[in-house]
Every structure is written in structure tokens, then in C-alpha cells.
Specification:
Layout (H helix, E strand, L loop, with lengths): L1 E6 L2 E3 L5 E9 L6 E7 L6 E6 L5 E3 L7 E6 L4 E6 L8 E9 L2 E4 L3 E5 L2
Length: 115
């Protein structure tokens, strides 16, 4: 089993920054794909960004140029640096671990962007 623990969520003003972190523990495989998803009120959960153990990244168009995903494979952690935040970024953000198509999820951390 894999356990994921998120941290770093909170309240930010429009244009502000926030950094989310996720620590993985348990039966960890460094080759697994890790990423971040989010779910806003009244909307479906959506992909935000993913990263491989080799450092290849993909971010969705809505956050491109503002969000950056990174990973430290030696510490089994993944982070999401969120800059130039907008109110529409408000959501619960979930850390994700994908191995052989089996998905493991963190408990979620709330990000609220409001003035």
C-alpha cells in the first residue's frame, strides 16, 4: 500500500503564491508517475500536472506558465509551486500516485484564492 500526505494548502490573494507538498510512504516504486489533481465546487476532479521519476512534466493549459511541478525521488516527495493565483484556482488539491494504472490518493488540501 501507498500513503500520501499533502501539506501547504491555505488562503492566498489573487496574484499570490502557494506551494503544495506531498510525501509518499509505504511500498514506493520510484518509477511510478506522480501528480496533482484538483476539484472545485460543483465540478469534476481534473488533472493539474504530472511528473515522472525522470523529471518529465506535463501541466494543463489553464495553469501553464503559472504552476510548476517538481519531484525529489530520493525523498519520495512531489511539490506544486503555484504562482499568479486566480480565484478560479480555488479547489481541493489531491496528490496522486499512479503505478500500473492503480491510483492512490492523498486526503486533499484546500486552496482558496480570494481577496
Amino acid at each position: 500500500q501507498v500513503q500520501l500526505a499533502e501539506s501547504g494548502g491555505g488562503l492566498a490573494q489573487p496574484g499570490g503564491s502557494l506551494r503544495l507538498s506531498c510525501a509518499a510512504s509505504g511500498d514506493i516504486r520510484s518509477s511510478a508517475i506522480m501528480g496533482w489533481y484538483r476539484q472545485a465546487p460543483g465540478k469534476q476532479r481534473e488533472l493539474v500536472a504530472v511528473i515522472t521519476s525522470g523529471g518529465s512534466t506535463t501541466v494543463v493549459d489553464s495553469v501553464k506558465g503559472r504552476f510548476t511541478i517538481s519531484r525529489d525521488t530520493t525523498k519520495n516527495t512531489v511539490s506544486l509551486q503555484m504562482n499568479s493565483l486566480k480565484p478560479e484556482d480555488t479547489a481541493v488539491y489531491y496528490c496522486n500516485y499512479n503505478r500500473f494504472g492503480i491510483m492512490y490518493w492523498g486526503q486533499g488540501t484546500q486552496v482558496t484564492v480570494s481577496s
